[in-house]
Amino acid sequence: MKLNRRRFLKYAAASSAVATAGALFPGVSFGNWQNLTNNSGIISWQKAPCRFCGTGCGVLVGVSDGRAVAVKGDPNCSVNKGLCCMKGYHSVQMLYGKDRITTAKVRKNGEMVEVPIKEALDLIAEKLQETKDKHGKDSVAIYGSGQWTIPDGYVASKLFKGCLGTNNVEANARLCMASAVTGFMTSFGIDEPMGCYEDMDHANVFITWGNNMAEMHPVLFSRMLANRKRRTNVTVIDFATRSTRTSQAADKSILFKPQTDLAVANAICYEIIKNDWVNWNFVNEHVSFHKGKTNIGYGTEDHFAFKDKAESINFEEYKLFLEDYTPEKVEKISGVSARDIKYMAALYGDPSLKVTSFWCMGMNQHTRGTWINNLVYNIHLLVGKISTPGNSPFSLTGQPSACGTVREVGTLTHKLPHGVVMKEPHREMAAEIWDVPVSNIDPKPTYHTVEMFRALDRGDIKFIWIQVTNPMVTMPNLRRYRDGALKDDRFVVVSDVYPTPTTDVADVILPAALWVEQEGMFGNSERRTQHFAEIVKPPGEAMSDTWQIIEVAKRLGFEKQFPWTQDDYIGKIWEEYRKFHAGPKHEMASYEVLKKRSGVQWPFVDGKETRWRFNAKHDPACTNGKDFDFYGKKDHKAWIWARPYEPAAESPDSEYNFWLNTGRVIEHWHTGSMTRRIPVLHNAVPSSYVELNPEDAAELGIVNGEMVKIISRRGEITIPAQIKGRGVPPRGMVFVPFFDESYLVNEVTLDAFCPISKQPDYKKCAVRLEKA
Amino acid sequence: MPIFSYLAMPKSGAKEALCADLAALSHCEVIPSDNQEIVVLVTDTPDETTEDKLQKSLNNLQSLQSLSLAFGYDDQEKQGR
Ligand code: SF4
What we know:
Chain A is of the alpha/beta class.
């Protein structure tokens, strides 16, 4: 039996690779390879989206004896066509770590004690009600995740916004995608990319803006490189603040000083106009020009408030604004040579080239994140390279359902599944679908994520339920928020799968089902909704986060709004939720369709997915009779914004003389709570480190592996040095991956954020170094 | 223990050399394409130490341009249940 099974697995491995090759290299043949038919049936395979990033690769999970044992890429999924990265292939092992949380725990006399899950759920409902009665509805909060399934986020929003009447609903996607959202909303009036991954098969030029795709979106990066190999006229430019694996693979690597991408983007626009590379037909028909407020602050103080105000300007005023951004002037600010700026402008400006720009955290985790998103759209709009195959400004997502759950369901303080709490028709729609009085839904947003944890520290929030995320590792300026969570009269509930620094501060821990231990849906970066079934049983008393919320809602007396049973709740929730998106701009596929396919892109209208939005040839929501219709804005135009360069919240000075940049590595997912329990991934990068420039290291007398103290105005960590590793920062910058809870780099980072998106900047603060 | 499959891309013109190099390594099976410069590699190692050694050998192959994983399987015993 063992031998048969092994032989079968090798067959499966080979057939998977052959299928992948077939998808990537049309016409490829493996003459010696016999097709596998009548396999032994020892393993059954079921589809799911990968759990580990926003790319949304389709995988097939192999199950044997009730246990998930293997993963292969799903050749039917157009995202990855059978390929996966190392995280994806090893992902099933995350289910089986030794210290998996399988029972509920409650803090009694300072100790965490195991209790039946029913008792823990009773206590949560009781505490929630008691806190609300005593301190008001806005003293209770839920903090979720871009790794929440769509049903998780939907029931959280329905319970807190619809039933309890508080807008204290936030998710960690505020820390990763909020600037992308406000970028879309301000430029197009509607969220999420106009293009899709298929753009990669058409583009001639790829420019990665502060985006180490080789490690963060490896399957997409492979697809980009496969295109370069297959077609003769493909160029990849890496535009970044440090050298990475992406820079090594690119045809050209251009480094800029932190924050100065704002100036460079404006300089590219300056050059496009100066050389008359503007696509006037497009601009005259489809673009309007605007400016907003300037000197907008950084949000480092409690209760910081900001509201932008758009003013129309004309093209001449915009052109005048760009006079400050000649390539020569910008060279001095950015460190990018005028020649390189002109080179990039020429690529965007050449009408014979199709250009795709990719970005992710580099542009979003930025105190001017909304602005830099606007500025890259400006470039594409000036030359009309948008919404057509290969011409794509493309904001990638980090988490598997940052789009699906946070942006589409609207699990942010100001959002509803359709629209925003501030607008009456949107509240009315939600109240009707949720079957609650419209007066329940508060028209005022409360706290965005940083302010929510500040409110917890101040005591304005006293009860918080945290699901599927680990804020006690990821919050910037972490010490304040950890101390806040530990204060005496705070009640913290954490639903998770493994012990983390966040479960350490909990009063109740709920054991959660993980990934394919529950049914659910994710939504990836390219508007693709991906359904997965419960493929294996959750361990012990673990239950889905959705069902945990439903159990508490029922205990609070909301049976009418949460009438479902455990047998059918996901399908019923989906069909209720999709009512919010009815219509050609956002129509979602039915539950039955989602179950059958390896992901479906919305708008899904008359059985057809929409690949390129705003393009009348592809998008059924276009109604203006022209070739493009930017229908998100009332003027049916895309907006070009005059947004200036403004410096970072904190820059190196004589006392704190280095930039600190933080991020991820390919092997680990976020805070490592899952990937560090996967032996192959853990062994590949067992602990975090600080990347130093070799010359800085030599000056400080630090060699590889020696301990370095990183000190900021907020805290310090001591961490081993890595010199000439996979990434090399320029002089005056260090980089620390945040996956390792033994080195809490966020005790050092700054909680400054973009005043429009409220997304913190994890890429820039000032530190000094000491040899430890 | 671990079974993996990969798409292996040879350096330009080095497909024959890559097939020979891979076939010479223990725990490797090679399926070359007959019409394109691609090779499918299936590895089956008995334990983690052997897997680590094999990974190092693969990284050192002069004829190899890149390896992309296509399938991964790891036995449950060592995953901690
Ligand atoms: S690229 Fe992302 S979605 Fe694809 S396999 Fe890797 S981690 Fe999973």
